Amino acid sequence: MNIILFGPPGAGKGTQADNLVNEFNLHKVSTGDLLREEIKKKSEIGIKIEPIVEKGSLVTDDIINNLITKMLSKKEFYNRLIFDGYPRNLNQARDLDLLLKKYKQKISCVLSINVNKELILKRILGRQICTNCGVIFNYHFRPSNDKTHSCDPKFLVKRPDDNEKVITNRLETYIKKSLPILDFYDNQKLLYKIDGNGEIDQIFIKIQGIIASLEAWLY
Ligand code: AMP
Fold first, then answer.
1. Which residue(s) pair with 142 in the sheet?
2. Using CA positions, which residue lies closest to atom 15 of ligand 1?
3. What angle do CA 119, 123, 128 make, to 5 degrees?
4. CA distances for 64 relative to 19, 105, 164, angstroms
5. Phi/psi class of residue 56: alpha, beta or left (left: φ > 0; alpha: ψ in -120 to 50)?
């Protein structure tokens, strides 16, 4: 099964994608992570997109389509992808449909995680990522400590776009460009809405319930 995790920045998509990877042996495709890697490598694409990502706007669909094509064409990931942060606008959603046809795959469900603005800010401003193991922590909700994390605390970093100034643009971009996708997937009967305001573990239980309800027609 291929799954789309949809929601505003700070909805917990990355964390829930990691949970799904562990539970169902899937492969996570976070376009945000892939773009940050390009920026870190200072590749040609990385240099081009850095100012766009820094201000919280969307990079061009061509760049994203190339990244996604690479993933969909890999045999080892056949029908085992979780998209985190993609598609981000209607064009990307339409392009994904074409790519899925080309590579003979389909989306099993779109999980839309909704979170109130106050919590979004707390989640984003408290977010810390371990550059060694890749695990996402949160200063308020899921702190990194001796019990939860074995890497040296020096590896914990904040994302440069996780600040109050950029979050306003990221939220506006989400409302204007990304939200219209929901109708697109609702029409395809793929959309499942999840209240993401609770505890991470409780939200994952809801996600597992939805996936279990799909299995009857998946296999
Ligand atoms: P994220 O890690 O998903 O919050 O993404 C971080 C940033 O990467 C976004 O604010 C955008 O600048 C860029 N980005 C990530 N995914 C996409 C996408 N599918 N389309 C366009 N830009 C994206």
1. 138
2. 32
3. 175
4. 24, 18, 26
5. left
Give residue-wise pLDDT tens across range 126-162: 999 999 999 999 989 899 999 999 999 999 999 999 9
Q: Residue 176 has which token pair?
A: 């204007």
Ligand 1 centroid–CA 85 distance in Å is 6
Q: Does residue 119 have a pLDDT over 60? A: yes
Query: Measured in whole angstroms, how far is the alpha carbon of residue 42 from the centre of its chain?
Result: 23
CA 146 to chain CA centroid, nearest Å: 27
pTM of the model: 0.91
**Is any ligand 1 atom within 6 A of the Cβ of residue 31?**
yes
Residue 63 in tokens: 């760049």
- The label of the residue with tokens 């989306």 reads 107
10 Å CB burial of residue 113 (0-12, 13-18, 19+) is buried
The CA-CA-CA angle for residues 189, 112, 102, to 5°, reads 55
How far is Cα 141 from Cα 126, in angstroms, rounded to an integer? 8
